[in-house]
Design brief:
Helices cover 37% and strands 22% of the residues. Strands 1, 2, 13, 14, 17, 18, 19, 20 and 21 form a nine-stranded mixed sheet that branches. Bound molecules: zinc ion (ZN).
Length: 780
């Protein structure tokens, strides 16, 4: 510490006494050139470049252009085998430009517009032919179930048309023969050349078609969806109507299939490739510090876009995202011109496959030759070519330490237009980095982004002066992050990301007064949902107690309005939405049941402002082998009120009785796993087990227990119930360790598991408790 301080002082002296030198050094610098970046965008977004679609020749042209520039400027290659490319494969679907669909009746011929009147379905094959259309109802082929819409019609080499949906009266009889998958399979097996699907009843909304499975792909089998106007044209000269036909099928269960005599002309080339090669472009400047060179600062943007659509329109994607790519390139060039010697290694990335699902950046994060744990930060640029002049820089909530450092060191002129924001996953290539715990910031310029994902996102929209602002910001940030001495990699950063990203419930049932007092000024807390209780005053009972509870409730909700960082929970509340706005949702409940015992009807009134009741003594409910009369009435009233009952410390026999008798969900708060029978009942009734994480409990042992419970009842019926307060250090650290244990075997956890355990299960049972029960008639 002392040495560091001394060095800092020396540096300060040096700066003070050498103003001329500093100035000269600045003058010699090659600044980020917005006009130069503009020319890369221009080159990347010409019609000849073809929209840079990964997996297509146009994608390759873009990759090559970028790599050749980086090479020309002397950047070090950072891809596979000393090249600028990191190779991988993507699942690729493509419909070639130039498609046609015409319908030929005896009297007329009409062609239809792609995208408006008809669409090629996912995993369709190609075809160029004219063939008769055969109407086959719903396209169900189940002769063994006495329902065959292919009986008596010849579909060999023809186009079958069938409707979405299925005859509901026959649902039981048909079983999975009515599944879309089996219907498509049947048409193909019986020799049809193509399927056109339509909706049996006219509709105002657009018809995008049906979900087709990958396994159904056949290069010579065409699957299209048509809008109502096409169906109408096919039926125009026929002496029947779809409404009549489906009436017969639906009501009488009699197939109405027939050969229409109307023909379809189909011409399209559609491809599907499970493993199409593509590549990220990667370059670097190796760090100069002996130790820090093994740490990385990554900047990147996706270079791919949407290519050419079946109508031949080119999606140039000048703003999305030739702009971000160009900024990465120009920073690389300027750093080389300036002979930059960053301490850490700087990596410059152009991602492929973003538009097809963040594929390139995800591949990099999973297979990076540069360890992701050693990656200090990532800055993403996506759509930075025009706008108001302000430059949002989002990610502060997840990694405040990085923003704090930048805010301290960035020049004032840059800070003036830089707008830090909360940030988070979603939308672009910073997402996979966040998921790995890397501090990741997303830059997208402020303002309306014209022609987003449309033809017309062209170079003439792009403003060099805006690009310059982004470039200056990111260039300066890279210099700071790559040269800041000391450790920038925080411990438990991946766990911390999970803690912050998940909607976290704090089960420490604190009186609302405490919460307002201690956390009232909170903003952007990792606690997203706080359970707060209205406590029953000792010594009061009956109406006196109830009046007191209701008064406390009124006062509390009035008081809450003063705190901008807190939001009161209502059944319509979205906890996530509040979190994204930096607010912690506070849900009020009742601790104790004395105010309900003598007259449980009051539960309905209390449910106007309260959402749950926590009870640790319910012994009065139970008699010999069942509920007492008092218990029955109590349970009935609480169930119909909409209040969620949370119980603690019931023995196994009583737990079973309650599970069987309750008509609405009960949350059982338990330290240990209940017996198998209880677990099965909880699962069957879709109630919930709250597994208590004790104050001193060992995280590893707890997660093992949690895992057993999850195997038994699924995360849908399970929640983590902390005893330590999560606002405090001990509670937070214990929870981080729990997450750490879970991440050690993350492959076991499926999508949604984390969210269920941390809050979704609770929110589900709350909704279930309200369902059919009283909805609050007024809000506070
Ligand atoms: Zn984009």
């Amino acid at each position: 510490m002392a040495l560091k301080k001394f060095l800092g002082l020396l540096l300060a002296v040096f700066i003070v006494f050498s103003p001329a030198l500093t100035k000269d050094k600045k003058a010699a610098q090659h600044a980020f050139d917005g006009k130069a970046a503009w020319t890369y965008i221009r080159d990347l977004s010409t019609d000849e470049m073809g929209g840079r679609r990964s997996g297509q020749p146009s994608g390759t042209w873009g990759e090559e252009y970028i790599a050749s520039k980086l090479e020309e400027w002397g950047l070090e290659p950072a891809g596979d085998d000393g090249t600028y490319f990191q190779n991988f494969t993507i699942e690729h679907r493509h419909i070639e430009e130039g498609v046609a669909f015409e319908v030929l009746t005896e009297k007329a011929r009409r062609d239809f517009y792609y995208g408006e009147d008809w669409r090629v379905q996912r995993y369709s094959g190609s075809g160029h032919f004219t063939a008769e259309i055969v109407f086959v109802g719903y396209g169900i082929h189940a002769p063994d179930k006495e329902f065959d819409e292919y009986a008596g019609v010849d579909v060999e080499g023809k186009v079958v048309m069938f409707a979405t949906g299925s005859p509901s009266k026959l649902a039981q009889k048909l079983g999975d023969a009515a599944d879309t998958k089996n219907r498509i399979e049947a048409a193909r097996k019986l020799g049809a050349r193509a399927i056109i699907v339509f909706r049996p009843a006219p509709s105002q909304s657009r018809f995008y078609g049906i979900g087709v499975d990958k396994e159904l792909y056949d290069p010579d089998f065409v699957i299209l969806a048509i809008e109502d106007k096409v169906t109408d044209f096919i039926f125009k000269d026929l002496k029947t109507e779809t409404r009549y036909l489906f009436g017969e099928i639906d009501d009488k269960g009699i197939p109405q299939s027939f050969e229409t005599g109307v023909k379809a002309f189909i011409s399209l080339n559609s491809y599907f490739d499970e493993k199409r090669p593509t590549r990220n472009v990667l370059a670097k400047i190796t760090g100069s510090d002996k130790i820090l060179k093994d740490e990385y600062v990554v900047i990147g943007g996706h270079m791919d876009h949407l290519g050419i659509d079946p109508l031949g329109d080119v999606y140039n994607g000048a703003n999305d995202n030739a702009s971000g790519t160009a900024v990465v390139m120009e920073i690389a060039r300027a750093m080389k011109l300036n002979k930059a010697r960053p301490k850490r290694t700087v990596i410059f990335a152009g991602w492929a496959g973003e538009e097809q699902g963040l594929l390139g950046s995800r591949y990099y994060c999973d297979h990076s030759p540069y360890p992701i744990e050693k990656t200090v930060a990532y800055i993403n640029m996506d759509m930075v070519g025009h706008g108001s002049g302000n430059v949002p820089f989002r990610g502060e909530y997840y990694s405040p330490e990085i923003w704090n450092l930048l805010e301290e060191k960035l020049p004032k002129e840059i800070l003036e237009y830089t707008k830090p924001g909360r940030g988070g996953p979603g939308g672009s290539d910073h997402t996979p980095f966040l998921g790995k715990g890397v501090p990741a910031y997303a830059v997208m310029t402020e303002g309306y982004h014209f022609k987003y994902h449309r033809p017309g996102d062209d170079i003439d929209l792009i403003k060099p002066e805006i690009i310059k602002k982004v470039g200056d910001l990111v260039y300066a940030s890279v210099e700071i992050l790559a040269s800041e001495p000391g450790n920038l990699i925080l411990p438990m950063r991946r766990e911390t990301y999970y803690l912050k990203y998940q909607d976290l419930t704090n089960f420490k049932f604190e009186p609302l007064g405490h919460i307002l007092e201690k956390h009232g000024d909170v903003r952007d807390s990792h606690v997203d949902l706080q359970l707060a209780v209205v406590e029953e005053k000792e010594g009061l009972s009956g109406d006196e107690l109830r009046v007191d509870v209701i008064n406390a409730l009124f006062d509390a909700t009035e008081e809450m309005k003063k705190f901008k960082g807190l939001a009161l929970y209502l059944p319509s509340t979205s906890v996530s939405m509040n979190s994204r706005q930096g607010r912690t949702t506070v849900m009020l409940g009742l601790k104790g049941i004395n105010s309900l015992r003598d007259n449980p009807k009051w539960a309905r009134f209390l449910a106007e402002g309260l959402h749950f009741v926590v009870a640790d003594d319910l012994s009065f409910l139970f008699g010999e082998g069942g509920l007492t009369e008092e218990g029955k009435t109590f349970l009935k009233e609480v169930n119909s009120s909409g209040l969620l009952l949370m119980v603690k410390g019931l023995d196994a026999a009583r737990t079973k009785i309650l599970l069987e008798e309750a008509k609405k969900p009960v949350v059982f708060l338990e330290k240990e796993l209940p017996d198998k029978e209880i677990l099965e009942l909880i699962k069957k009734k879709e109630y919930a087990l709250g597994l208590i994480l004790g104050t001193d409990e060992e995280p590893a042992a707890y997660v093992q227990k949690l895992e057993q419970a999850r195997e038994a009842i699924g995360s849908r019926c399970l929640m983590i119930v902390n005893e330590n307060c999560l606002w405090g250090t001990a509670g937070k650290e214990q929870m981080l360790k729990v997450i750490s244990e879970m991440l050690k075997e993350e492959e076991k956890y499926e999508r949604g598991d984390f969210s269920n355990l941390f809050s979704s299960t609770l929110q589900r049972v709350l909704r279930m408790a309200r369902g059919g029960g009283a909805q609050p008639s007024f809000s506070y």
